[in-house]
Amino acid sequence: MLRLKGADTTPGHEGDEWEGARVKEIIELIGEALDFVGVLVIAAGTLIAGVTFALRYARTRRATGFYPAFRQGVGRAILLGLELLVAADIIRTVAVSPTFQSVGVLAVIVAVRTFLSFSLQVELEGRLPWQPRPAAGPPPSGG
Q1: Could you state, in order of their start, the residue ranges of all structural domains in the chain?
Q2: Residue 49 to residues 29, 68, 74, 81, 90: CA-CA distances in angstroms?
Q3: So which domain of life are we looking at (predicted)?
Q4: DSSP states of 63-106
Q5: Half-sphere exposure in the Cβ direction for 141 (13 Å, CA)
Q6: Which of 2, 14, 54, 85 has most Cβ atoms within 10 angstroms of its Cβ?
Q7: pTM
Q8: What is the pLDDT of residues 30-83, one digit of tens each?
């Protein structure tokens, strides 16, 4: 069981402070790993979308039909990457250093990233999340 530093001075509980520090270190590493994976997802998704676009363009020599698919691929990569980055921020802020200042900073970061995610989602799908999906037809071109 973890205890706050100096919370228990009973003989035999000297290792509790070390355990708490070790758990915080592990949580920090998990947060950093999620940050890395989030950035990797954005970079890899953008690269895959770019290569796919380039290959399609090389075959047909026209970009008009493939550009919306490229934008959607990049947008999806950014959305997934942002979700992972938000998760990393939450883990580090709430689990490691839950002060009012750090929670306030987290709230601003999450608000900005949520707005970006929402905006990208609307742009990709061409509708607000609470609106019903169109019955049939091609997806919106997006640009």
Answers
A1: 17-125
A2: 30, 11, 6, 14, 29
A3: Bacteria
A4: -TTTHHHHHHHHHHHHHHHHHHHHHHHHIIIIII---HHHHHHH
A5: 6
A6: 85
A7: 0.67
A8: 999 999 999 999 999 999 999 998 998 888 877 677 888 888 899 889 889 988
140 φψ region: left (φ > 0), alpha (ψ -120 to 50), beta (else):
beta
DSSP assignment of 26-52: HHHHHHHHHHHHHHHHHHHHHHHHHHH
Burial of residue 29 (CB within 10 Å: 0-12, 13-18, 19+) is exposed
**Residue 85, exposed/middle/buried by CB under 10 A (0-12, 13-18, 19+)?**
buried
Q: Alpha-carbon distance 122 to 30, whole Å? A: 31
First to last CA, the chain: 55
